[in-house]
Design goal:
By secondary structure, the chain is an alpha/beta fold. The chain has one domain: Ribokinase (UDP-N-acetylmuramoyl-L-alanine:D-glutamate ligase), CATH 3.40.1190. The chain has a 6-stranded parallel beta sheet, sandwiched between helices. It binds adenosine-5'-triphosphate (ATP) and magnesium ion.
């Protein structure tokens, strides 16, 4: 069972334009669709679509239209009642595949609601293989929310606690890395650079920079890291080694949610006991499949690219700090 938390859920509105986005102009959209968004919801959708067990823990207001979108997904839900309504995230895609995102801040979570959410996640984690903490934190909770939640889950379930994956950015991810030593993080290139206080714009070589940064964190501060690099594929870092996988050439429809599908693909492979290179290959295949689909539509095994994903091992020395 894979349990996900979406602390700051969103209704994702994907709009497709007939021409390039022109700021300041009135433009016509070709089409639009709305999905229940939030990274944890996305991961649970992809895992469920592959026939593996998943549950999504989500704070939702009973009268929020988002709840209907969420129920439409068909995924198993643990809804935590809250007063605020889910935000909207807007994605605008032009005919060339260029994507512009506008993410709204989300409703504030009160201290009592945050406590109920923690209790809900701790309860849902019983017997789970993985707990996925994904996406931004809602206004009102401290930046240590994920780190504190990891402590609470491990304290409650001890040796039976699930492995914990974190797909977050900024201070929330920094706080996790500082104290909680998660089992997996899934930063993209920019998020990894920010995590170690560096500017990715100054990188000469993206792979070298990512390897150096991730190796400063794995396995001391995090057991493993899946670093996704968009069209350049992804890297996997564990205590045992470093692997690089190339992304297949695809026709991009929308890269939004590609990272969430990458993480889901990785976890699906892990549930099957796959090796590190196979876990990386599956994550890249799922990321690529998501990028070929419009909006944040969840890829199914039938959407995966044909042909194998090329994975090679990096001869990197293992850091111990
Ligand atoms: N243009 C592309 N061509 C082929 N594969 C892609 C492309 N963009 C993304 N992917 C696949 O999706 C994976 C994840 O993409 P990316 O690194 O952009 O994630 P992300 O920045 O975390 O995205 P998000 O947080 O929006 O879900 C990549 O590792 C790759 O496998
Ligand atoms: Mg991401």
């Amino acid at each position: 069972m894979i349990v996900t938390l979406t602390a700051n859920p969103s209704a994702d509105r994907a709009v497709v334009l007939s021409e390039a986005l022109q700021p300041g102009e009135v433009q016509r959209a070709l089409s639009s669709r709305e999905d229940a968004g939030g990274k944890g919801v996305n991961v649970a959708r992809v895992v469920s679509a592959a026939g593996a067990p998943a549950r999504a823990v989500v704070p939702v207001n009973a009268h929020d239209p988002y709840r209907m979108l969420l129920e439409d997904t068909g995924i198993a839900l643990d809804v935590i009642e809250v007063a605020g309504r889910a935000r909207a995230n807007l994605t605008i895609t032009d005919p060339g595949g260029e994507t512009t995102k506008v993410n709204l801040p989300g409703a504030e979570l009160s201290a009592v609601e945050a406590e109920a959410l923690v209790a809900g996640v701790v309860a849902a984690s019983q017997g789970a293989t993985w707990l996925v903490l994904a996406g931004s934190l809602p206004p009102g909770v401290p930046v240590t929310f994920y780190a504190d939640l990891i402590d609470a889950v491990r304290e409650r379930w001890g040796a039976a606690a699930p492995l914990i994956a974190v797909d977050a950015s900024g201070p929330a991810l920094s706080a996790v890395i500082a104290t909680a030593r998660p089992d997996l993080i899934k930063p993209n290139h920019e998020e990894l650079a920010e995590l170690v206080g560096e500017d990715p714009a100054a990188d000469d070589d993206v792979h070298d920079a990512a390897v150096r940064r991730a190796r400063s964190l794995v396995p001391g501060r995090v057991a493993s890291a899946l670093v996704t690099l968009g069209a350049d594929g992804a890297l996997l870092f564990t205590a045992e080694g470093t692997w690089r996988g190339r992304a297949p050439r695809i026709q991009v429809a929308s890269t939004v949610g590609a990272g969430d599908s990458s993480l889901a693909g990785y976890l699906l492979a892990d549930l099957e006991g796959a090796s590190a290179p196979d876990r990386l290959a599956r994550s890249i295949a799922y990321g690529a499949a998501a990028a070929t689909l419009p909006g944040t539509q969840a890829p199914t095994p039938g959407d995966l690219p044909a042909g194998p994903i090329a994975v090679t091992e990096f001869p990197t020395p293992i850091a111990t700090s």
